[in-house]
């Protein structure tokens, strides 16, 4: 008979794999509406995810927590700032997928964990072990290789990694429920999204009353695509340590890489492949060092 802890861990692993798999296959959804501009898709993503998050917060009895946070002006201001980085990240990801830059998006989310570590050192005073420094340096070398061989930086990758890394840094310093925080962030984006939708969007699909039910259903699903992985991620985070959870984060960009290379057949130039190789090696070293450090900490705790 499995123990309660083993059952919780198994449930956490299933939730983590589900979350990162959904993030990985999200490009399949955005490709379905490739004919719609990135800004219009972003509007739908904000509107429908806000509605869905509102329902989740109500049904999960988090409303009092929402009121508590929403009545703190400083916290709302901080969430407004984090929301701006999240909105840029969402837009960049949609644009990258629908403009055949899925490989760049994949690279960006591979770079993100290493960039997050660097941001922790710069802004939180965290210290890196020697192998971690080497891993971050190797990732930097990978970016420089592309700069030298192609003549340009992987700007889309760096923008995605940068905006999500800064978003993670900002949210890490706010000790609030993830759904409550995301709902407030979405509510901060909502007025801008609605004004833009009603006053500035003039496309053949912007008026949902004139669209077919199939297209409207697909657009409304933007809320599910945004919220469903977060539900699974939160469930996993409650059952696993963040260190253990971190090892699953490579599932998403790996799926994106496979989709971009083999399904959508985006060109994988030699310079870009070298950059990926450096990032993969850096992540392997970083992960190995994290496992080793974790085992050492456990041994010290037991002794």
Number of helices: 13
Order of H and E elements? HHHHHHHHHHHHH
- Structural class estimated from helices and strands: mainly alpha
Mean residue pLDDT: 90
**Helix fraction by DSSP (H/I, runs of at least 4):** over 70%
Strand segment tally: 0
- The first-to-last residue Cα distance is 29 Å
Outline the secondary-structure elements.
Elements: H1 4-32, H2 38-59, H3 63-70, H4 73-98, H5 102-124, H6 130-150, H7 155-172, H8 178-200, H9 213-220, H10 222-239, H11 242-246, H12 251-263, H13 270-302
Helix pairs in contact: 1-10, 1-12, 2-4, 2-8, 2-10, 3-8, 4-7, 4-8, 5-7, 5-12, 5-13, 6-13
Structural commentary:
- By secondary structure, the protein is an all-alpha fold.
- It has one domain.
- 82% of the residues lie in helices and 0% in strands.
- The chain contains 13 helices and no strands.
- The model has no long low-confidence stretch (mean pLDDT 90).
